[in-house]
Amino acid sequence: MEPLTDKQIRSSFVNCSKGEASRLRLPLDFADVPWHDLDFFGWNDPGAPLRAYLVVPRDSGPLGIALRVPSAGGTGAIKSSLCAICLTGHAASGVALLVAPLAGAKGREGNTVGTYLCADLACSLYLRGKRVPKLRTIRYEETLTVDEKVARALGNLDAFVAKVTGP
After folding, report:
1. From 120's CA, which of 20, 28, 81, 98 has a CA 20 to 30 Å away?
2. Number of domains composing the chain
3. pLDDT at position 83 over 60
């Protein structure tokens, strides 16, 4: 992924107001983001732990999606979970349900779509072996190359983005 500036990121959001985008907080380590290892830029808001953001590269420029964690609920007997984007297995706390308001009028009416993502939004780093789940409980062997895993993850991400942005 090509490095992005603060201005590019803030102007990319399609499902929040310009005011909300101007107030979001970038990660504390923004100056050290490993752009060359990323397929998309995702982070949790350091000032609002129930908010997260994704910025996905597109031919027309970056596309940002604001996310939130729904109201607290117990995990019950869930011991492990898979990220719906990169399919990395984690202990239950390593995956979070993140919900995005739909873009446009539907989002302003309160319509949302959600998906399960790596709680730290570091899918790209897990795919490349640069980060390992803390308590990996789901174990499976894949014969896919890193490039094939990345392509699959980007396809999954594109499907989620399409649900947020609509037809």
Report:
1. 20
2. 1
3. yes
Q: What are 117's strand-pairing partners?
A: 96
Domain range spanning residue 110? 6-165
- Any domain includes 12: yes
- Tell me, what amino acid is at 56? V
User: What's the pLDDT at 134?
Assistant: 80
What are the start-end ranges of the H helices in the chain? 6-10, 18-23, 105-108, 123-127, 146-165
Enter the pTM of the model. Answer: 0.89
Residue 1, domain member (yes or no): no
Say how many residues make up the chain.
167
Classify residue 114: in a domain, yes or no: yes
Find out whether 42 and 121 touch, Cβ atoms under 8 Å.
Answer: yes
